[in-house]
Amino acid sequence: MCRWLGYLGNPIRPEELLYQPARSLIEQSKSHGSGVSAANADGHGLGWYGTADAPGLFRSASPAWGDRNLREVSAQISSPLFLAHVRASTGTPVQQTNCHPFRHGQWMFVHNGFIDGYDRLRRDLLLRVDPKLFPGIEGTTDSELMFYLALTFGLVDDPVGGLERMAGFIEAEGRRAGSAHPLQMTVGISDGVRLYAARYASGVEANTLYVSSSVRDLRLLYPADERLQHFSDESRVIVSEPLVDLPGLWREVPPGTALVVQEGDDREVPFRPYEP
To answer: Which PROSITE patterns match (predicted)?
Structure first.
């Protein structure tokens, strides 16, 4: 499984989440989950919103834990919104163009999961991508194709709906090809203003996803914890698995749920795929 995180709040250095917590994303890339020895060694990436019109990307096909450039970059950038990802390939090549985040205009996308039978379905899925968007596909992974299908199905104007239509289309194609459980996914996307996430699986078990609690409430719970003092009340972190073991800090996102993290009240809505 891949691992990813998304942050929205006051500007911070990404290293504060990538390296500093006890179970930071870099530590998770070495061995994720209790008793799980598999490593996320098939590439990594960091995407952030800064002073340019489009988000910046740093991606590499090397293991995240040994990349000195990632450590340098994440210590120098300060961003109010970023996505980071460590990759475990599900069969497609280990190459930079297959590393997350993927970018299109103002949008970024990260994914943990897989399309069952992707090698059989890939051609039919590719043919459904809007021809105007098709030249933007640089790699071969199912994750990037999911992003471009979501863009094709209206992600820009209706982010949650675009993801639902993407998931519904893949499920329909997969089931027509004989797959009982075509899709497993947690996804994170952003337009530079909001952070969206969804947890869904065609089968019973869905990959984990967590969101941080209100910083205001956490300060009341842990008034002496200096780590919480410089985060704004609006700050939220979405993660594949918790970064630190602090009771009350993380809430598990239920399967079949989408999140919209934004200035003001966040939203949590049902995630219901349907074929477009």
So the answer is: GATASE_TYPE_2
Taking the chain, what is the end-to-end CA distance rounded to the nearest angstrom?
28
φ/ψ (deg, to 5) at 7: -130, 140
- Domain 3-116+184-270: CATH superfamily is Aminohydrolase, N-terminal nucleophile (Ntn) domain (3.60.20.10)
Task: Give me the residue spans of the domains in the chain.
Answer: 3-116+184-270
Q: Does residue 32 surpass a pLDDT of 70?
A: no
Among residues 1, 2, 73, 187, which one is catalytic? 2
Burial class (CB in 10 A: 0-12, 13-18, 19+), 202: buried
Percent of the chain with pLDDT over 70: 97
pLDDT above 70 (res 168): yes
Instruction: Give the total residue count for the chain.
Output: 276
Overall pTM surpassing 0.85 (yes/no) = yes
Q: How many angstroms separate the CA atoms of 171 and 99, rounded?
A: 24
Q: Is pLDDT above 50 for 35?
A: no
| pLDDT for res 38 | 67
Is the pLDDT at 134 greater than 90? The verdict is yes
Contacts 24+ apart (CB under 8 A), 184-187: 184/113, 184/114, 184/116, 185/111, 185/112, 185/113, 185/146, 186/4, 186/111, 186/112, 186/113, 186/240, 187/109, 187/110, 187/111, 187/112, 187/113, 187/146, 187/163
For the question of residue 99 being annotated catalytic, the response is no
